[in-house]
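[Solved] Which block belongs to which protein?

Original post:
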Amino acid sequence: MDDKQTAFITNDAVVTGILLGILALVFYTASSKKNGWVKFYKIVPSILLCYFIPALLNTFNIINGEKSALYTIASRYFLPASLVLLTLGIDIPALRRLGGKSTIMFFAGTIGVMVGGPLALFIVGSINESVLLYKDEEAWKGLATIAGSWIGGGANQAAMLEVFGASKDLFSQVVVVDVMVGYLWTGILLYGSQHNEKINKWLGANSAAITELENKMEAIDNNRAVTKRGTREWILLLGAAFGLTAVSHFGADIIAPWFTKNYPASANYSLTSGFFWLVIIATTLGLIFSFTKARKLEQYGASDLGSVFLYFLVATIGMQMDLKAVLTSPTLFVIALIWIIIHIAILLVVAKWIKAPFFFVAVGSQANIGGAASAPIVAAAFNKYLAPVGVLLAILGYAVGTYGGYLCGLSLKYVSELLR
């Protein structure tokens, strides 16, 4: 008999309460000013706990992620709604006002991830072909979820998990790799922010542009109006999120069967997958409506609500993971380390070429690797008024993460097939 059938709690209503309680506890303690919690969260990222506390409950059979319908609900409804809300607030004119170098460094970081993953897999796979498989599964499927995370964020990672079909066992491995390697790089950038002038000198960059940007962002912060959020505003947010999610489902239900019927070979590129079209349409609609008055929904907390949906999705992913399988494939760490080194190398070459200040290197990288969670933190390490720059670029990451992660996943698949 399957031990999972004897899980202590099987009622999804109870499990929902448990997951939301875990998220509330993590966020409450992560924002605590008490010295013990501050020290704890300097070592353990809060996002990791959102995955691993539910995973512990699943591992010890307190809940059963495989039998629960919560992940299906979260991935089919909350994920596309999250993508809509996170991309809806992109302010393209504001990004343009940051200057060309900020955008160039962001996309240099994106290219670094897209090129670095397949190249790292090729290097390690050429030396040790066994790395191409995790147990009996193709490892590139798990690595593709890192691409989604490192270009966009958790929503894009979850999208790549569904599109390429990595098992929960493999995903348990790559989540640890993703978080540990990513936060190691974040720590290095935070250290580098304290030696900003020396690094700018090495890059040949003029920091006057950053000083001007600091003054500009300070003026914007001082003049920012506080928008009231009430029942009307929440209804508008939910209407936009789930209305566009409905359109995305409607479009996916038409497009995926059409490809299946007329171009069955396109299954190799996930074009016959309804979920693929669901996330593509949701992301695209969010981008399109960001050019309209709908962008003002960000003043009501569009990205905040999108993040709430995202964290619940993270918890439902975690509740399907078996921690007894974690860290059984250390070669994935080797691939990720080489991957991040390539990302860094491309960033530094481009920065040296265009003489971009280190601030743009750091924030451009974190807007990809760390997303909205850490890009503002790294930006604020340079100056507290620069935190919104990190937010703007991180939101851009959510927009390109779906497309970039998908293309990187196909490249990883090609490299894997080439080496086998």
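(Second protein starts here: sequence line, then its structure tokens.)
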Amino acid sequence: MSGETPVRVEKNGPVTTVILSRPHARNAVDDDTANRLYEAFLAFDNDPQASVAVFWGEGGAFCAGYDLKAATALTQEKPFGDLDIPRNWSGGRGDDIAKGPMGPSRLSLYKPVIAAISGPAVAGGMELALWCDMRVMEESAYMGVYCRRWGVPLVDGGTIRLPRLVGMGRAMDLILTGRKVEADEAQRIGLCERVVANGTARQSAEELAAEIARFPQGCLRADRASALDGFDLPLNEALIREWQNREIFEQEGLAGASRFSGGAGRGGKLEDC
């Protein structure tokens, strides 16, 4: 639709909320929207004042996937344009071919992103949710590989991230059947981390983001990176990778230990750390 702004960014201190706003299309993503999402998350990652992002779909839907109406205009010879991944690709930091068909799905950010899910997060929209570090779903929200019925493959990381979250057997169930996964099942199988009341996904995710943003960020990002990098490494290599984080102790840990010695955080009270 002409004149629409499909992606907005709102900031509240260290929390950045990226808003997908194509409600007339259930927040389905076309090429322009994909570019804007990619740019918004790259800008978040490069913003020294930003610590945690929330990804939310406006109008009662997280994202219904790629806009199949827009897809009819793609050329049959090369439908995804210049999105091919070079064989020597080293990862997505925004300085190379990091954009996926849905936008940010190939980016490897330094900072965490929380998906706030209302309504459907299906097909490519599910892949965007899987790209995030955590998922907060409303009670009536749902996911599903709905693109199964249209012959559209998962090309935004879904076949990689889904088995890592829920295990191969459950991933195959969802990938092969394309069935609907409601919030209670999603939480039970590890597809989402929190289920909240309808209409509260954004607020709940932003409160969670603010809580995470309170912690020393160097240590938090180092531990996050070690968990991601070490996931599929042999144990010895993963332990070597984790040990690299010892340098953070000198930067933040010593100061934290000093605060604890001074009485902060006793009895598990995080608010005075």
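Accepted answer:
You had them paired correctly. Confirming on the second one: DSSP finds ten helices and nine strands in the chain.
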